[in-house]
UniProtKB/TrEMBL annotation:
GO terms for molecular function: cysteine-type deubiquitinase activity; zinc ion binding. Substrate binds at W198, R210, K211, F212, F213, Y248, Y250, D253. Keywords: Hydrolase, Metal-binding, Protease, Repeat, Thiol protease, Ubl conjugation pathway, Zinc, Zinc-finger. This is Ubiquitin carboxyl-terminal hydrolase. Residues 611-652, 675-715 form the UBA domain. It comes from the Eukaryota. It comes from Patella caerulea (Rayed Mediterranean limpet). SUPFAM superfamilies: Cysteine proteinases (SSF54001), RING/U-box (SSF57850), UBA-like (SSF46934). It holds the Pfam family UCH. Transmembrane segments: none annotated. Zn(2+) binds at C188, C191, C208, H221. Its EC number is 3.4.19.12.
Length: 797
């Protein structure tokens, strides 16, 4: 006990709000379930794996640690709670698919460990000084710091897809036909069905719902009635409780929210507070169907016996509650040599600079993640011993998730997110952290050439921009199996009428070639109302997009998420013919050609007045999007129509300045003094920069807040130069370039009807063998579903 007494002044209790990191090592993925458990410094409350203890001791002089070892003990089946059926299309949240296993419980062993001699004092021990006992008890009782941060981020978030308020809710027509609905004993008015019944909120009719893909459901009587009456809203009987019920809008073709549901039901004599749930909600039915047919089984290769694989580069990642989008992106990213070179094997370098406190730095956490995924240290076959159950394989990247999502309105939550948007967010964050050295994201960066030709003068204009992902449209009209797909639709309707199920093997999706998607991307587009400086007026123009450079790694994104004819966001259920070898050499941009005349610069004469079509803006805002964001979409895309504007909203709604008021270009010509956007200026200054620095960044990026944030971190040396004598902007690093021939080395697939719900998995080519990474499960792929993926990673050959 003498050594304890010698260190008593360094032992603290986390009673003053200090953060306690007791679930994961700061520098590795060791945790209380690891062989040696986790050691918590009783001075800094930092968690450490055994191999990092002595380094921490030498760095800080702290000698006393609380060691926590946790083992899983099997729970007899009779003592296990009944498994709850999921009610939400979400993972790891209340009501969703649960990742917690109830077949075991934890058994914990604690002790005090003193360095440098590794003296072990088992707990409890009454001979220990009171301060030590209080510190140990407080650490054990504290909530882990990362869990606290996650809980704060989860405040006011939803786990599934948010419903829009129906446009019919406020002024719904309700007929005074004297109809009163009993509290039970319902039956379809046109057949004998007593389940899947819908009450029309206009005329009070009770009719059965649609027939589902598998033949279950109703006989379509409610739908047929709407086609005759056009009464828009119906509520599903059996789902109504005091908190609401499932309301469907036939005109809007979607599940909606009716904030006046209690009043609308009272019109037909229904007391909403007296009803109890007796039927499945539409989400529950969708979950049932998704588990039977569709993409879920195909993408996860559920019909095959998959052989687990272990070792270096074959480490899974546990799902931290709808974090599968992050898991898939990071697995793919760390197969790329640029990322391995930057982050893998750099732990010693990072530890040398460690302060002894939590390493809240992207480079540290990227190096930690790279080591966890690539070293094979956390990828071993499970070894059960007696009644002790081995912990699940893989790593639990909680620190990384919290750090990379900090401050972001979406990625800081437990909501399901879009993998493509997360990929671009990751690129942006890594670029900011790579000041002074080449970013590993350079392997993705390429230059896009946009050529616009005035239809009257034939003069041309060339604009170039950088991209990190090649987003391609999915032209349904170009399907190669139109007849088969149409025949399937007819067969499906016949089976539904007969009440027969549809065999998942018989499903025929529209099939489109990836090369066709590329052709659609490269096809000329007519720009209406184009202002031509050559004729000093409006005309039309032809616009064509090419690639000026070809990156080392090409990330291809298919625009599967679009809107239907009622402007409701939907996901295209299509099959894409994906080549293993892709040649895009024909997309090479050539720049200004001999004989081409450039459109003259507009120096003194003001540009035409910009008029934003408020009708288009209103159409977009009715869908529930922020008005300022919709004004920006119309400003950028109104010449291309409402669909293009809607696509712009879908692509940019996650931008940090999406809701910032639109700043229209000045009409006074180039000589007019630059005026920074006030809100953008405040946001940049909130990052710690002064007004002059923030103004300079916004001026260099035309008041674009997102680009300004990138610029300010990459031009630190220029920030304090006076505005009036500023030097020309330093050119960016040269784009990497090479031939346009690529091979497929990975892809990420999404299951579900929206990016807000569902699940992501990825497949990666490892030494000629496709491997599926489904969160912590890693196995040899038998039938890689290349045709159903969302993101494709190609490597130049």
């Amino acid at each position: 006990m003498e050594v304890i007494k010698q260190n008593i002044t360094k032992i603290k209790s986390p009673l003053g709000g200090e953060k306690v990191y007791k679930d994961e090592c700061a520098y590795s993925f060791d945790n209380p379930e690891s062989e040696n458990g986790l050691y918590i410094c009783m001075n800094t409350f930092l968690g450490l794996g055994k191999k990092h203890m002595e380094r921490h001791y030498r760095k800080t002089g702290n000698q006393v640690f609380l060691n926590i070892k946790r083992r899983r003990i099997e729970v007899p089946k009779d003592d296990q709670p009944p498994e709850k059926k999921p009610t939400k299309l979400a993972i790891g949240v209340e009501g969703g698919f649960q990742v917690d296993d109830k077949s075991f419980k934890f058994e914990e062993e604690t002790s005090i460990v003193v360095l440098p001699d590794w003296t072990v004092i088992p707990l409890p021990n009454r001979d220990l000084p009171d301060m030590v006992q209080l510190s140990a008890a407080s650490i054990l009782a504290a909530v882990d710091a990362w869990k606290m941060e996650e809980a704060a981020a989860m405040a006011c978030t939803w786990e599934g897809e948010k419903l829009r308020v129906s446009k019919h809710a406020d002024n719904l027509l309700q007929l005074d036909n004297g109809k009163k609905i009993p509290p039970k004993g319902w039956k379809c008015e046109q057949c004998d069905l007593t389940s899947n019944l819908w009450l029309n909120l206009t005329d009070g009719s009770i009719l059965c719902g649609r027939k589902f893909f598998d033949g279950s459901g109703g006989n379509n009587h409610a739908v047929e009635a709407y086609q005759q009456t056009k009464y828009p809203l119906a509520v599903k009987l059996g789902t109504i409780t005091a908190s609401g019920g499932d309301v469907y809008s036939y005109e809007e073709d979607d599940m909606v929210e009716d904030p006046h549901l209690a009043k609308h039901l009272a019109h037909f004599g229904i007391n909403i507070s007296a009803l109890e749930k007796t039927d499945k909600t539409m989400v529950e039915l969708e979950i049932d169907l998704n588990q039977k047919i569709g993409e879920w089984d195909v993408i996860q290769e559920s019909g095959n016996k998959l052989e687990p694989v272990y070792g270096a580069g074959l480490t899974g990642m546990r799902n931290l509650g709808n974090s599968c989008y992050m898991n898939s992106v990071m697995q793919v990213v760390f197969t790329i040599p640029d990322f391995q070179k930057r982050y893998y094997g750099k732990l010693e370098e990072i530890f040398g600079n460690a302060s002894g406190h939590i390493p809240d730095d992207l480079n540290v956490q990227m190096a930690k993640l790279g080591h966890g995924l690539l070293s094979g240290e956390y990828s071993h076959p499970p070894k059960d011993s007696g009644d002790t159950i081995a912990p699940p394989p893989g790593i639990r990247p909680q620190m990384f998730k919290s750090l990379i999502g900090r401050g972001h309105p979406e990625f800081s939550t437990k909501r399901q997110q879009d993998a493509q948007e997360y990929f671009l967010h990751l690129i942006n964050v890594i670029q900011k952290s790579s000041r002074g050295q080449e970013s590993p994201t350079e392997c993705f960066r390429f230059e896009v050439e946009e050529r616009t030709q005035c239809s009257q003068s034939k003069n041309v204009q060339y604009k170039n921009r950088e991209e990190f992902c090649l987003s391609l449209p999915v032209p349904l009209e170009a399907a190669t199996n139109k007849e088969e797909a149409a025949a399937y639709e007819v067969k499906k309707k016949e089976l539904q009428k007969e009440g027969k199920p549809i065999d998942p093997k018989d499903i025929i999706r529209p099939r489109i070639s990836l090369n066709t998607c590329i052709e659609a991307f490269a096809s000329p587009v007519t720009v209406e109302d184009f202002y031509s400086s050559a004729i000093n007026g409006k005309t039309t123009a032809n616009q064509q997009t090419r690639l000026s450079t070809f990156p080392d790694y090409l990330m291809v994104h298919l625009k599967k998420f679009t809107v239907n004819e009622n402007w409701v966001p939907v996901k295209l259920d299509v099959s894409i013919d994906i080549p293993d070898i892709l040649d895009i050499s024909h997309l090479r941009g050539q720049g200004l050609q001999a004989g081409e005349e450039v459109l003259p610069e507009q120096e003194s004469q003001p540009p035409p007045q910009i008029v934003i079509d408020e009708g288009m803006v209103n159409q977009l805002t009715e869908m529930g999007f922020d008005r300022e964001g919709c004004r920006k979409a119309v400003y950028h895309k109104q010449s291309q129509g409402i669909e293009a504007a809607m696509n712009w909203v879908m692509e940019h709604m996650g931008d940090p300045d999406f809701s910032v008021p639109l700043q229209l270009p000045s009409s006074g010509g180039k000589s007019q003094a630059f005026v920074p956007n006030d809100e953008a200026l405040s946001m940049i200054m909130a990052m710690g920069f002064n007004k002059d620095q923030a103004t300079k960044a916004l001026k260099a990026t035309d008041n674009n807040i997102e680009r300004a944030a990138d610029w300010i971190f990459s031009h630190a040396a220029e920030l304090d130069e006076p505005m009036e004598t500023e030097t020309p902007e330093a050119p960016q690093s040269k784009f990497r370039d090479g031939n346009g021939k690529y091979k497929l080395v990975g892809f990420i697939s999404h299951m579900g009807t929206s990016t807000s719900v569902g699940h992501y998995v990825c497949h990666i080519l490892k030494d000629g063998q496709w491997v599926i990474f489904n969160d912590e499960k890693v196995a040899k792929s038998v039938t890689p579903p290349k045709d159903l993926a969302y993101l494709y990673l190609y490597q130049r050959v």
